[in-house]
Structures
1.
Amino acid sequence: MSIFFWQISMNNVDNKKTHEWREILMRKNHLLQFMMIALFAIVLAACGGSDGTSNDASEASSEAEKSEAVNEDDAEASDDIDMEEVQEELNIDMDEDAEMPQNIPSDVPLPDDMEVVMTVDNDMVAQFNVHTTMTIEELEELYVPYLSSDIFSGEPEQMILEDDDYYVVEYSTEYNGDGFEVTIIEEEDYRDLHILVRYN
C-alpha cells in the first residue's frame, strides 16, 4: 500500500493548528522509517548468524534490546528535524491552493467538494492529497472506471486494509510505465484521498 504520508484529522482547526499537526505528522513518518530499519535489523539477526546457523534466543533478545536503544536515540534525533528543510527538499506544498502536480493525468476526476491537504512533486513521486465528504462507494464509482480506461495498463488491482481503527482501500495500475495509485482512507467525517504517480 502506498503510505507515503500518514494523514490525521485536520477538520475544524485553524491554519496555525493545522500546520502544527502536519509537523507532528512528518516527525512521526521520519520516526517510522527509523523503526522499520531497526525491525529489519532484528529480523536479520534472528534468522541466522555469520556461519549461516540460527541465533539462539539470548542473541535475538540482545539484538532487540540494542535496537530499542537505537530507536530511543532516533526518536530524540527526529525532534531536531528541520521540517521546512524537509518540505523544501521533497517539494511538499501544504498550501490549500496548491495545484496538482503536472505528471498526474490532467483528466483525473476530482471530488467537487475537495479540500487540498498537500501535494508532493519530486523525482520519486507526484502526489495529490485531498479530503472529501464523498463516501468510499461514491469514490470507487468515480475512480474504478477511470482506472480501467485505455490510458492505463491493465485492470486496476484492489487492496484493502481493515481493522477496528481504520479502513483503507487502494487501487493500483500503471501509467506510462510508472505506478499509479488511488488510495482512500476512511475517516469519521470525511475520506482522505491520495492520488499518486510512483516513478520506476
2.
Amino acid sequence: MRVKIEQLEKTFTKAKKRGFFNSFKEPETYSVWVVSVQVDLSEEERAILTQRKLWPKVLYTHEFAAEHFQVMNSEEISLLGDVTSIPITIENFFERPTHDTVCYDPVAAKDFAHSMQHEILPRLKSYIQASADIGSTTTFEL
C-alpha cells in the first residue's frame, strides 16, 4: 500500500443572493482546505478485498462541519436533509484515483490528514492483513 496525502487551499465564490440591492454587492468568497488522499493498493491487497468481500465495509464516518451547511444553497440543503455524517466504505474510498475531503479551516485539514495517516489507513492495512491470514490453526494451553 503506497499513500500520498496532500493538503490544498481553494477559494470559492458564493452565489449572489437574489434581489436588486444584492446585485451591487461584491460576491463573497470563502476558503476551504482539501485533503487529497491517493492510495495505491497492491494486486494482492485488491485480491484480498475482493476475495473476502470487504469492499462494502465502512472505513470511517465523515462528520460534516457546521460550516458545510453555511456555504450550501437552499436546494442543496433540501437534497441533503438532516444528514450530518456519512459512512465512507472501502469501495467509496477507492471510487476515484484520489479521495478528497473538504475541511473549513487549516487545523481541521491537518487533523484529518493526521487521522488518515495514523488511524484510518493503518486500520485498513491491518484489516487486509488479518483477512489474508484466515484459516490458520492455533494451539495453546491456559
